[in-house]
Every structure is written in structure tokens, then in C-alpha cells.
Amino acid sequence: MTQETILIVGAGLSGAVIGRELAQKGYRIEIVDSRAHIAGNCHTERDAATGVMVHVYGPHIFHTDDQEVWDYVNGFTTFMPYKNRVKTTSGGQVYSLPVNLHTINQFFGKTLRPDEARTFLESEADTSIADPQTFEEQALRFVGKGLYEAFFKGYTQKQWGCSPTALPASILKRLPVRFNYEDNYFFHKYQGMPANGYTEMIAGILDHPNITVRLTTDFRREAADGYSHIFYSGPLDGYFDYELGRLGYRTLDFERFTYDGDYQGCAVMNYGDVSVPYTRITEHKHFSPWEEHRGSVCYREFSRACEPGDIPYYPIRLVEEKAQLADYVARAEQEAGVTFVGRLGTYRYLDMDVTIREALDTARLYLARRAENAAM
Ligand code: FAD
Hints:
- It is a single chain.
- By secondary structure, the chain is α/β, with parallel strands linked by helices.
- The chain has ten helices and 17 strands.
- Helix 1 packs parallel to helix 10 and helix 4 packs across helix 5.
- The strands form four sheets. A seven-stranded mixed sheet has the order 8-7-13-14-15-12-16.
- The chain is globular, with a radius of gyration of 23 Å.
- Among the domains are: 177 residues, 3-Layer(aba) Sandwich (Rossmann fold), CATH 3.40.50; 86 residues, protoporphyrinogen ix oxidase, domain 3 (Orthogonal Bundle).
- It is 32% helix and 21% strand.
- Flavin-adenine dinucleotide binds next to helix 1, helix 9 and helix 10.
- It holds the Pfam family GLF.
């Protein structure tokens, strides 16, 4: 058994899973996180007044096809069944998302069957656009002006802070419409919500005698000597003091409010109209429908450009950012003894299951390399 100490920056899912895997192999693990709590952006907290489990950094629904990841998370908590069914308000009506047969029939005032709806949408599509270049062209080509303007245009504009004419077609890869009444947002085999929230689950992952966690502690490069390796799940550009500029992110502002009763009757209500400044309202008690609550906690969600000091949420990853990212990656590859991991360390949007899969693989690769070196 080794008594080397490894430093992990970030007590989110990436840091917790890597830490746990290495702790189980005898490494001493020190984890630092600048926040006052563990679990990173998956953090959940029970509201004392209403008893609602609040998803503090926005709603998180666990969904995966990865059997090992599903077994892994179930080893630390009990998952309750949960299906994500999203509604949207547009032009004074409420519709079902993702756009499905119900949405199409309601929007056009029809009673189409699947094949009829497919033919009908083909007649709506703008076939004069032969080679769509922008998000807008792609959407018009796929679904036509009516559905595009009601369900894609306003929401996308608010989410990305620019016109869909300025976004690449690649953002809308496939036909974003279902020709049946399936309104479960995800297709994955396993979907659910941890019974007592994500923070309890991650506390379970971190609960190992070889792991020490220090909260409200910022990582400083100059104070990182003496560790046999560092796994860094903070922002990639932040590690290098933004020397090559700041990688672009969107951030979110949450306007929290409580309600005495049931505010909107569902967990997520999107707002497709640009006249409404927020993108959606989330009502958190509906993320744990098996619980009793004494009121409701809701978030109005606003998206805007991330400024220094804001929490980075969604990496923008357009042409300019990707070029800058390549420069940072080249720098990171020169950094001996440091592995950059997670959504911020690799500047990618990663679902939780992918985060866990990558963390498990990263830890195993590290262990395999160490074993190889020891055998030489
Ligand atoms: P993080 O959770 O961001 O953890 C990184 C940690 O590092 C943070 O705690 C931070 O405080 C700490 N840190 C950063 N810099 C430093 C530093 N210099 N010093 C010390 N500590 C530092 N995934 C799903 O599967 N389903 C969903 O429904 C879903 N919804 C999402 C909704 C939103 C709005 C967002 C943004 C993401 C969503 N995700 C969802 C993705 C999920 O949040 C990520 O998979 C997960 O948070 C990644 O974990 P991480 O550990 O890589 O990063």
C-alpha cells in the first residue's frame, strides 16, 4: 500500500469519483474546493421552510445507458424513478416538449396520425434551403417557420444571447421532432433521482478514511508542491491565470421565489417567447414527487454571458473558443503531474453519467500507468 498523497481540485462528481477510486487503492487523497459545500454544480439542499430538495445550481436529472455507472451510483444512494417531462409556454398556450405529435396537432389544430404528421411537416419545411449553414436555416429546413418560431427561435436566442442566424447548423443535428406522443425527455434505459439529493450521494462517494476534504479553499499553483499528482477539475483557463484569454461561457442567474401551493403543476416550464426575459421556470418539489412538501420553491432562470467572478455554466465552443481551447490544451499537455478533468477542466458540457464514466476511466488509467512504471 502506498502512502503518497494526491491532490484533487474540486469536490464535484469528477473529483469525488477519482478520489474514491484512488483512495480504495491506498492513496491518501486531499480534495480542496473553493465553495462551502461538496457536490459542485450537482449540489442539492433541503429548504427548511418547505422541505423541498432544491437543485441549487439548476435542475439535474440522472439518465444513462451505462450499466457500470448506474450500478456505481446505486452503490451510494437509492434512486427513485423519475421521468423528465417538459412543458413550454408559447404564444399564450402551453405545449408539450420535445416537439411531439401532441405538440404538432395542438399547434396546427389538427388530429394527424404519425405518417400524416410527417408528410404535413415536409410540406411546412423550407426546401429552398439546400445546404443549411445556420441554426435558423437548419430549423426552417427541418420543421418550417411555424414550429421554428414558436419552439426554437426565442428560446435559443435567450439561451445563447445571439440570433439563431449567428449559430452554426450543427447545434441542431437531427430532426428535433417526434412523430408519436412520447414526451419523456430522455431515451436512456436508466433514469432517476437520488432519494435524498445529489449531495448526499456524493458525500457517500467521499466517505473513505483515505479522503480529506477542505472546503472554502482555493487551489493555488504555488502551494501545490509535495503531491505525487494533481487532478484538476477547475476551469482550464483559470489554472493558467487566463494568460491566453478567457474561454467563453454562458452563466445563469436564478431568481428564487417560494409559493404557497403548486405554482405551475410541473417541474420545468420553458418560455419560448422573447418577450419573456427568462428561459424557464423550474419548480423543485416536482423533482421529488414521492415526498410531502409544505410549499414550493421555484427558480426563474436567466441566461447571459459569463463575466469574471460569475459561475461558468455552459461552454460556448464556437469556432473562436475552440481555437483558444486548442492553445490551452497544448499548455495543459506540457504540465507534468497534472491531469485536467471534468466539465471545467476540459471545457465541455458533460452529463453526470459521462462525468462519472470519464472519472472512472481516468482513475484506472492513472493506476495502470503507475503499475507499469513500478514494474519497470
Ligand atoms: P463541477 O460540478 O463544476 O465541480 C467542479 C468543482 O471544482 C466545483 O465544486 C468548484 O467549486 C471547484 N473548483 C473550481 N475551481 C476551483 C479552484 N480553483 N479551487 C478549488 N476548487 C475549485 N447532467 C445530467 O446528467 N443531467 C442533468 O439534468 C444536468 N443538468 C445540468 C444543468 C445545468 C444548468 C448544468 C450547467 C449542468 C447540468 N448537468 C446535468 C451536468 C452536471 O452539472 C455535470 O455533469 C457535473 O457538474 C460535472 O461535475 P464536475 O465535477 O466535472 O464539475
